[in-house]
Amino acid sequence: MIEMINVYKKYPNGIVAANGIDVKIEQGDFVYVVGPSGAGKSTFIKMMYREERPTSGDILINGTNLASLKNSKVPYLRRQIGVVFQDFKLLPRLNVYENVAFALEVIEETPKVIRKKVMDVLELVGLKHKARMFPTELSGGEQQRVSIARSIVNTPQLVIADEPTGNLDPETSWEIMNIFEEINARGTTIIMATHNREIVNTIRHRVIAVEGGLITRDEYGGEYGYEG
Ligand SMILES: Nc1ncnc2c1ncn2[C@@H]1O[C@H](COP(=O)(O)OP(=O)(O)OP(=O)(O)O)[C@@H](O)[C@H]1O
Ligand SMILES: [Mg+2]
């Protein structure tokens, strides 16, 4: 599903954040991306949804090469990938329902289809009863649930999450992980950068360790393996 071939990324300031990455990720995989701060985890995953473009190398997603993809085609790519961030990035003036529906309205679904899809994903994340509330009225964990609902409402085959539990307390983090497990059980590929050792060592999945812009370890059922 995803293949990186000799991917190299040098930022304009001269920092090399990917230094020859080769990796393959199959449909349905659940991948943790671990490593110290500054290792290149976010850069690695940002290149998968074309938030960053590689300096050289190829990135194939279902046969599309993101390295050469025209900017005009990026919105179409993004519709097929759900993205979840540490700081939720909800739209403050829209309520829960509208935040999730927004992703569908831009692709011109009918109101009836939108309503059904939005209420279904809100049910999945346990927030149907808060559909009319605004982001500021929600806890961090609830806001992250909304953000996950938004990321999957288009039924993407791939969900990318950059430290999705980074701002949450341990108990809420486990609840959020259960939602990702549920999404993965439906066949969706999940790629998650995380510093959460407990989670990685308990809910075992493939672990890709990144250090100095290189993959230093890649193990199914692997451990977190860092002190920090
Ligand atoms: N937009 C940018 N411009 C210049 N340098 C950048 C940019 N983004 C990241 N870097 C640099 O690239 C390196 C890798 O950063 P990246 O954000 O990928 O690390 P990370 O592993 O996600 O770290 P963290 O665990 O702190 O989130 C760092 O040295 C960082 O300073
Ligand atoms: Mg990061």
TrEMBL record:
SUPFAM superfamilies membership: P-loop containing nucleoside triphosphate hydrolases
Membrane topology qualifier: Peripheral membrane protein
GO molecular function terms attached to this record: ATP binding; ATP hydrolysis activity; transmembrane transporter activity
Major site of localization recorded for this protein: membrane
Alphabetically ordered keywords of this record: ATP-binding, Cell cycle, Cell division, Cell membrane, Membrane, Nucleotide-binding, Transport
Domain ABC transporter: residue ranges: 2-227
GO biological process, one term: cell division
Domain of life: Bacteria
GO cellular component terms, semicolon-separated: plasma membrane
Compartments it resides in: Cell membrane
Keyword Cell cycle: yes
Role of this protein: Part of the ABC transporter FtsEX involved in cellular division.
Quaternary structure (record): Homodimer. Forms a membrane-associated complex with FtsX.
Family designation: Belongs to the ABC transporter superfamily.
The protein, known as: Cell division ATP-binding protein FtsE
Organism of derivation: Psychrobacillus psychrodurans
